[in-house]
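By way of example, we now present a protein record of this kind:
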Amino acid sequence: QAQFIESGGGFVTAGDSLRLSCVPFETNFKTLSMGWFRRPPGGDREFVAGIIWRAGMIDYTDDVKGRFTISGDSAKNQTFLQMNSLKPEDTAVYYCAAARDRPLMWDFWGQGTQVVVSS
């Protein structure tokens, strides 16, 4: 079972920045797309950002547009999420996701990294 490992979460103050990383562990396939999701305290998992490698398409949820930037390396199955101007409402566990068979059909998930933004 392929795995992806996130890192870069932490405890920050509103206005600060964090950079999340997602790298593969024991994968032997190419991803078609990768993305980031988050689960806020007491809430449901929600889409944050995604990238389709071949098409070069990138999408963000409205809440993070202009503040977050997704990037990555398709050859290495890695993705990163630069998060600027963090707000308390960005507090969540952030998950990396990867699609192997169809773009945006998420086959694999990371374990998550905690982000806490204090006011």
The longest strand covers residues 18-25. The two ends are 39 Å apart (CA to CA).
